[in-house]
Amino acid sequence: MSTQMSERLENVYQEIIKRNPGEVEFHQAVREVLESLGPVLVKYPELAEQKIIERIAEPERQIIFRVPWQDDKGEIHINRGFRVEFNSSLGPYKGGLRFHPSVYLGIIKFLGFEQIFKNALTGLPIGGAKGGSDFDPKGKSDNEIMRFCQSFMTELYRHLGEYTDVPAGDIGVGGREIGYMFGQYKRITNRYESGVLTGKGLHYGGSLVRTEATGYGAVYFVSEMLRTKKQSFGGKTCIVSGSGNVAIYTIEKIHELGGKVIACSDSNGVIIDKKGIDLDFVKQIKEVERRRIKAYTEKHSDAIYQPGGKIWDIPCDVAMPCATQNELNGKDAEKLVKNGCVAVGEGANMPTTPEGIRVFLESGILYGPGKATNAGGVATSALEMQQNASRDSWTFEYTEKRLAKIMSNIHELCFETAEEFGTPGNYVNGANIAGFMNVGQAMLSMGLI
Ligand code: GLU
After folding, report:
1. Is 411 among the domain residues?
2. Do residues 302 and 226 share a domain?
3. Among the atoms of ligand 1, which is closest to the Cα of residue 378?
4. In angstroms, what is the span from residue 1 Cα to ligand 1's centroid?
């Protein structure tokens, strides 16, 4: 990736920093996209004349609200809720909700900005948005989670609708939370509006494969990248950071395709199991018991737990960051490349720092950026919306086939766009340019809105 931007784009970027002070993750996400767009503006000057980049970088609407709730002891807590509705030129606002103590406006805006391009790459009719709260679900009882979700939805509901804005999950928001929020939405509005949330349970309008989709999709994308080098996951040693929903189903699909995942992690430490990660046990620890990954050694005494360890120091063929933003820096990237890693595919959103991205691109290894690689989650959300709109539900096999096809289409689009703009093999440019072109053309057609 060139770190140079044309003077015009540099000015646009400086203006965005000035208008959005302190939102460092948002600045980072914007810069990464802008660094790809120079040649696009040369080829399509009307996109510059119509100030499409400036318009995309300014959310259509930003909602910030108070979320009061009571814990089991009766104590009152106040959290902050967010929904940033970034762009609706391709469809209703779409994107997940994140509940994590690190959440502030800058995090939601980086995620919402990325979501615009990711959703555009799927080819499905979904705009871009993101939301969440600085609420920390860790250690909370089920009743506390329910009361928080109900309070959160009591404000958010007025901004949602199947044709307006359709949230889903992200870090800290899974099937349980979506269920509580759907229940509260239904109660307040007196409408059984299935298409207003995705990631729902299978008993009330959810889609098969949605739970697995982000991880499975990421592995499909990496398989496609490997295929361009006549390689596959078969026999490859892999490491997957994280141990939440994305990591779990990334590991599952890698194992299905004949690779071996030897390490995963959480924010406290790293588990290394040279025999291959026992995924059933990880699911038991994380999905059923909701405990920390350290518990893995209770059953596997020969596995190693490294508190505070760095997963990227472990030699591997394929690395898949599936935890959170900026979890892999320049030094980590250098280590991976030096240890012979041939492919990196991002299941998380923006897990690699700009220095890390530079190392990957300069090394020439296969590098799949999150907005392309992890698009399978939101794509399957769009498939859930399709099923809801037609009051239908599809089989697992059919839905997974649709997901696999979407991922291979995204891969092809990114691959060909990178070639067309003179940087073959650069999936960062491919994803940024192809996503931007889809949204930009739609915006041009709709006039100044
Ligand atoms: N949070 C996921 C993402 O980052 C999924 C969003 C959705 O399904 O709407 O794309």
Report:
1. no
2. yes
3. 8
4. 26
Task: For residue 169, tell me if it sits in a domain.
Answer: yes
Percent composition of the chain: helix, strand, coil (DSSP 3-state, to 5): 50, 15, 35
Give the domain range for residue 293: 213-372
Atom of ligand 1 nearest to the CA of 119: 10
Examine the domain organization and report whether 99 and 152 are in the same domain. Answer: yes
Q: Is 1 a pocket residue for ligand 1 (Cβ < 6 Å)? A: no
For residue 94, what are its two tokens?
């779409």
- Residue 203 domain-assigned? no
Cβ 324 under 6 angstroms from ligand 1 = no
How far CA 271 is from CA of 256, 274, 331, in Å, comes to: 21, 10, 21
Three-state secondary structure call for residue 76: strand
- Please state the separation of Cα 126 from the chain's center in Å: 15
Beta bridge partners of 263: 239, 272
Digitized pLDDT (tens) for each residue of the chain, 449 residues in all: 344 578 999 999 999 999 999 999 999 999 999 999 999 999 999 999 999 999 999 999 999 999 999 999 999 999 999 999 999 999 999 999 999 999 999 999 999 999 999 999 999 999 999 999 999 999 999 999 999 999 999 999 999 999 999 999 999 999 999 999 999 999 999 999 999 999 999 999 999 999 999 999 999 999 999 999 999 999 999 999 999 999 999 999 999 999 999 999 999 999 999 999 999 999 999 999 999 999 999 999 999 999 998 999 999 999 999 999 999 999 999 999 999 999 999 999 999 999 999 999 999 999 999 999 999 999 999 999 999 999 999 999 999 999 999 999 999 999 999 999 999 999 999 999 999 999 999 999 999 99
CATH number at residue 104: 3.40.50.10860
Ligand 1: which residue has its CA nearest to atom 8?
Answer: 378
CA 199 to centroid of ligand 1, rounded, Å: 9
- The reply to whether 80 and 18 lie within a common domain is no
Which H helix or E strand runs over 429?
Answer: helix 427-445
Query: Could you give the CA distance from residue 284 to residue 277 in angstroms, rounded to a whole number?
Result: 13
Cα–Cα dist 232/318, whole Å: 10
Q: Are 128 and 168 found together in one domain?
A: yes
Residues 159 and 100 in one domain: yes
CATH number at residue 342: 3.40.50.720
d(CA 400, ligand 1 centre) in Å: 17
Active site residues: 130
